[in-house]
Design a protein that fits this description.
The chain is mainly α. It has four helices and no strands. The longest helix has 25 residues.
């Protein structure tokens, strides 16, 4: 018994993107199927152009409904942790301030002056955060200390 493969239908090369879609070759197609009822296409909103809206009166957006603020999460610290954080904050701020004092009157290049300003900003932010968020204050004080030490080494 000889096995014969049926001929493959001819496939048209892909059409360029600007060309309309080619009509399918129905000469080798099976029996015609009844057309199905398709839903209507979705309605498109007309596009407005900037110049068309220029004459239209401006409408103010509605203010948002009163929304309760989200509760702030904060870390719960034991009294021992609070004491340790406070001591670490004070030590790091003191180290940073000593470095800033040692740099007083020294000639700094632009990058060094920028780092010095950051150290001072971190010290101020750490002092402000100390009252409300010890974790944040500790991180800021540590940044100030590390950056100040690096800056002092780069100047020497």
């Amino acid at each position: 018994m000889v096995h014969v493969t049926p001929p493959k239908p001819k496939v048209a090369p892909p059409a360029p993107p600007d060309a309309p879609p080619a009509e399918p070759d129905l000469s080798q197609a099976g029996p015609a199927l009844p057309p199905e009822e398709l839903p209507p296409p979705p309605r498109r909103r007309p596009r407005t152009r900037p110049h068309e809206d220029a004459d239209a009166p401006a409408t103010e957006p509605e203010p948002p409904a009163a929304v309760a603020p989200l509760p702030q999460l904060e870390q719960v610290l034991t009294p021992e942790q609070r004491q340790a954080y406070t001591e670490e904050i004070e030590r790091n701020i003191a180290n940073a301030q000593k470095a800033v004092a040692a740099l007083q009157g020294r000639r700094l290049n632009r990058d060094q002056a920028t780092y010095l300003a950051r150290v001072r900003a971190f010290i101020d932010q750490a002092n402000e955060a100390r009252n409300g968020d010890l974790f944040r204050a500790r991180n800021l004080a540590e940044r100030a200390s590390v950056l100040a030490e690096d800056l002092l080494k780069s100047v020497e």
